[in-house]
Amino acid sequence: MWAIGNELDHIPGDKDYNLKVWDAINEIAGMIKQTDPNHPVMTVVGYGKLEKIKDIKERCPNLDLLGVNAYAALMNVPEWLREYGWEKPFAVTEWGPSGWWEVPRTKQGVVIEETSTEKARVYRERYEKVIMADSLCLGSYVFLWTTNRQERTHTWFNMFHDSLKTETVEVMQYMWTGKWPANRTPRIDYPSINGLGPLESIEVAPLSINTAKVDASDPDNDELKYEWELLPEPIQFGAYAGQGETKPEPVKDFIRSSENGTIQFQVPAGGGKSYRLFVYIRDGHGNIAVSNTPFYVK
To answer: Which long-range contacts (CB under 8 A, 24 or more apart) does 171-174 make?
Structure first.
């Protein structure tokens, strides 16, 4: 099919757009149909400014379907489209984990990323309850088939890490084929710091030595290899989709002792900064579990 533009109504900063964009899309759709009447035509919108569906329906009769990009909000999409009278099919053209704009934050305003295991759970739930279940949904493109791409973190939207498969990949294999892979991915929880989790807005003192622990398991009882990384939290972010963001330089030599899933680690000097403690767990069979917990140095 043909797609005319991606989120043309979205201007960073959530500014209002010109409604004539829909008139232009309708005109282009008509031109496409004259040249190629054998393929359907759509445009792609994000989940925002919800009343725009009414405008698209009125101004774009030449469209055959609508593409929708949505993350945690995907569960609301069918009701949203029907509320504003959309009766044609739709495709979920972008979906995945909960976006950084949709998740809880620490009291310092740092967003809390889902673990790779939690991401796998919500991928399955959103696929089964919307994409598979809705009679008007033609299908979807699950995001993001990349590795180590930075947007807020270098693990947030990636279904791979260091080119190894996270649990979201095996879930989508099962959704599409009905079969799990021969070797399954490790399961992981958030690493705790001094017994506290990310929702507890962890604070520590400069140069303090702290204890981090992560609970993990493997469905195949594979021997697991743990790797830890400490990163300062970025303070500047790309205006749109992480454009221009780069992974921060990691803190060196921060681990004081390590045993299985527990480490003693020292935080840097200097207060007033947030950090993230990442843990990566490999099973030796091409699979990896990833998780991180933010904390604040007072």
So the answer is: 171/120, 171/123, 171/124, 172/123, 172/127, 172/142, 174/124
**Amino acid letter, 147:** T
Rounded Cα–Cα distance for residues 173 and 167 (Å): 10
Residue 50, number of CB atoms within 10 A of its CB: 13
| In the chain, % of residues over pLDDT 70 | 100
Q: In 10 A of CB 112, how many CB atoms?
A: 19
Neighbouring residues of 178: CB distance < 8 A, sequence distance ≥ 6: none
Phi-psi category of residue 58: left, alpha or beta, with phi > 0 → left and psi -120 to 50 → alpha: alpha
Rg (CA), the chain: 22
Pairing mode of beta strands 90-95, 137-142: parallel
Tell me the β-bridge partners of 231.
Answer: 276
Give the residue from 291, 109, 294 showing the smallest Cα distance to 193: 294
Which residues in 204-213 are b (16+ Cβ under 10 Å) and which e? beeeeebebe
CA distance 45 to 73: 13
199-255 pLDDT per residue, tens: 999 999 999 999 999 999 999 999 999 999 999 999 999 888 899 899 999 999 999
- pLDDT-based confidence at residue 39 (cuts at 50, 70, 90): very high
pLDDT at 229: 98
φ, ψ of residue 7 in degrees (nearest 5)? 50, 50
Distances (CA, A) of 82 to 85, 88, 294: 5, 10, 39
User: Rounded to an integer, what distance in angstroms lies between the CA atom of residue 213 and that of residue 143?
Assistant: 30
* 3-state helix vs strand vs coil in the chain, percent to 5: 20, 30, 50
